[in-house]
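Memo to structure team: turn this sequence into structure tokens by end of day. - J.P.
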Amino acid sequence: MNLGILGGGPVGVEMAVAAVRSGLTVTLMERGPQIGSNVLSWGHVKLFSPNSLNHSTAGLAVLQEMGVPHPAPELFPTGAEFVSGYLSHLGRYLDNSDKCKVLLGTQVLSVGREHLMKAQFCTKSKEREASKFRVLVVGDGGEEVIEGFDIIIDATGTYGNHNWLGKGGIPAKGERGLEKHILYNIPDVSTDKFFGGEEPKVSMVVGGGASAVTTLAMLQGVGREKGGVSVVWLTRRVGEPYSVIENDPLPQREALYKLGNKLAAGGQDKDFASFRYLGNSCVKEVRARTETGKMEVVVESGNTGEEEVVVVDNLIGHVGYRPDMSITQELQVHYCYATEGPMRLAAAMMASGGGGGDCLAQVAPGPDMLRSPEPGLFVLGMKSYGRGSAFLLKIGQEQVQQVMQILTL
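Reply from structure team:
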């Protein structure tokens, strides 16, 4: 059986390891220059989950076989530590395996099914099942079509495919034109782009999720150490922005959420040159001040309907991510109308609370929920949650095991 795995992040790599150790043939395609490239882009950020939840049994077995010490299970690694201490070793194992071909710097553009068009034959038909997958990729050498896959695992994730700042989820006026100047990922705030000497640097943070408060905590740390940090924090939330879980087993999350609520209430802001919280508000327009390099952000209050212009040095949009569904648009895939995750899994999560709440309480709902109308296609990892953000690596590990149950029946 020949597997094509799209994405060399944590779940794609775990899937490749499990497949190789079961005797299957794997081609792993990763857009970045190395395994875990997306993780390394936020390598300065500490994970909420300890190593005990980030590593699979198979992965730890590989480390033991390679003579690599297991990372301490109780530690909370940064993204960079997770890659260097775990993921990169699994990548080296795969690279040395005669069962696996690792293609780095290889972006997947589209997946099709030999000569079959999208509308040919009903879903789960024998004709479609008998037809091999073909994948169009692009790398340093240009475009190439790789053929002959029995199974496709889409583990391309959602990171980097951001949502928009504007009301109702559409781009704010001017946002698309300034997209390259807006930070949609968690930035490294230790540079002088984020703090000033005589004149503080003003950063607007938009969003009320974990990424937003993570960035706020890092900005607070820079302000405490170096000074010159001003922040305007904008969310759509009414009331406290975070629901703190009592006796949270993830202490990093508990500490950050409590910090967010205190900042929103006007407390713990002494490390900032200035700090404003704008709840129940939205970004209406973004304009560039070409003479200064700053941006003007037009903010609309949901309480009064009034608008104000906020001048900022940095605009940080922590508004979530969405899956790139164009990769599989020539296949018969049923995506959820609300979350854009695979429909069967999305429906199962909605029935059990919408895939929200405490991410630790979630479990992968079973192998059948991972099956797609397109035979042999599985969407795993963060992408399987669509626009949802409550995904944990342990869920991806469970998904891998469930797909292996299907493939090895």
